[in-house]
Amino acid sequence: MVPALLSPILSRLGLWASGLILVLGFLKLSCLLLRRQKLARAMDSFPGPPTHWLFGHALEMQQTGSLDKVVSWAHQFPYAHPLWFGQLLGFLNIYEPDYAKAVYSRGDPKAPDVYNFFLQWIGKGLLVLEGSKWFQHRKLLTPGFHYDVLKPYVAVFADSTRVMLDKWEEKAREGKSFDIFCDVGRMALDSLMKCTFGRGESGLDDSRDSSYYLAVRDLTLLMQQRLESFQYHNDFIYWLTPHGRRFLQACQVAHNHTDQVIRERKAALQDEKEQKKIQNRRHLDFLDILLCAQDENGVKLSDADLRAEVDTFMFEGHDTTTSGISWFLYCMALYPEHQRRCREEACEILGDRDSFQWDDLGKMTYLTMCIKESFRLYPPVPQVYRQLSKPVSFVDGRCLPAGSLISLHIYALHRNSTVWPDPEVFDPLRFSPENVAGRHPFAFMPFSAGPRNCIGQQFALNEMKVVTALCLLRFEFSLDPTRPPIKTTQLVLRSKNGIHLHLKPLGPGSGK
Ligand code: HEM
Ligand SMILES: *[C@@H]1O[C@H](CO)[C@@H](O)[C@H](O)[C@H]1NC(C)=O
Ligand SMILES: *[C@@H]1O[C@H](CO)[C@@H](O)[C@H](O)[C@H]1NC(C)=O
């Protein structure tokens, strides 16, 4: 029992505490409203679609078809329009080459309102970092993507692809269409683990990879939903919801996977024989670089920094290419004529050899144009966000102050009909050297552009070429008209119902 003397003191304390919470809550709310007013006022000169009083444009963004909704808004509101997720978070959504150039040619930081949602999962790795630390890590990791490092990966891509194609051979025998997205994902993760994380054949661990793969699928979906639901924006509230707890659980699965990778490589580094091997390698791989990195004072990367980079690359390195390869194969099924030409080219390059070599990649000109055209229509990363560190003025004289938030809608940018006549038509010749030469450098940005562009661009293109060429040599791809894919953004471009295709084995020596 509380002594009688104490109880008035306690009740007074309770009163003070509730008062304090009320005042803090009020202050926080005023800050948010003030910021809202600043964001909204900055965008005064940009008309846009009507907003819901509570949700802003979030309801439209959550609906199926939201990507094409933005394309129709782009027609109505040239260059840019305000885009609100709820009432407190507003971006200027841009989709015009000169607008994109004004922002993306500078190195403005990522919008923390979006990228902070990543922190629990991939921490402060290259994707999220800012300022001098970002610069230092970018400089450190760039040699991990030097072409001498990338060369041997060609054989790794081919091996991982072959495993997938053998599996497809069995599935195709049933004569039914099937979803290719998942299998491509596992293949892309497997080759990433072997290239970037140096996993040997012996280290293959299917069930661990599988749970990681599924966790990433969950995490990207949850993060996209969080972004589009203002009630989840506050960290404190989010972690209390079932949605937030599911996110934390999936994070744990992902972290288990990365921890294991780091642990294994660290153990290998203890081994003298392994150390000799690394010293003899002319170019270190990504994980060697991270583990051996020291600054001029001999200080190594902290465990947290190391883990963040491994988490970042593990995610960025497979989910994006999975989307790219899957949508490319869908395009091939949709346009048999282009499929045939890519296959003929691949046959010709291959001759009587059974796999591709580094020098072959440069010869795949038609395939490369088709890959770019499929990046245009189905960009694996459809939308990226920035916060202006200094004011910007656009070509038409309108401007935005520092602190404003920008959303670059790559999907809508790639469908601008002035730059891309008949934008919905699949035409690889848009990427012939003559046509590229005459085009605005910021009209095509699948890998973003400027100082914060994709560090894995060359890795990704090489992988795309090897994998898709081998796919086309083994199978003929055609559509399942009963199951058209439904485009949806979950950080990367996916399909709500998978990508279902019919595969017809071409048999050995086919087409040669
Ligand atoms: C088709 C495949 C890919 C596409 C379309 C793609 C696209 C992009 C885009 C649009 C960005 C900018 C993101 C932003 O501004 O928020 C980016 C950044 C990044 N990408 Fe990729 N990416 C691909 C493959 C890869 C691969 C294979 C890796 C690693 C092996 C990778 C690693 C990264 C990293 C670390 C960043 C952050 C770079 C920085 O901010 O300095 N990406 N990527
Ligand atoms: C497409 O780009 C052109 C040239 O940059 C621009 O004039 C036009 O307004 C853009 N269209 C849209 C819908 O943004
Ligand atoms: C993480 O790994 C440990 C063992 O290494 C296991 O006991 C635990 O259940 C795993 N957690 C998750 C969420 O997978």
TrEMBL record:
Keywords: Heme, Iron, Membrane, Metal-binding, Monooxygenase, Oxidoreductase, Transmembrane, Transmembrane helix. The keyword Repeat does not apply. The chain crosses the membrane at residues 13-34. PROSITE patterns: CYTOCHROME_P450. InterPro entries: Cyt_P450, Cyt_P450_CS, Cyt_P450_E_grp-I, Cyt_P450_sf, Cytochrome_P450_Monoox. It comes from the Eukaryota. Belongs to the cytochrome P450 family. This is Cytochrome P450 4B1 isoform X1. It comes from Galeopterus variegatus.
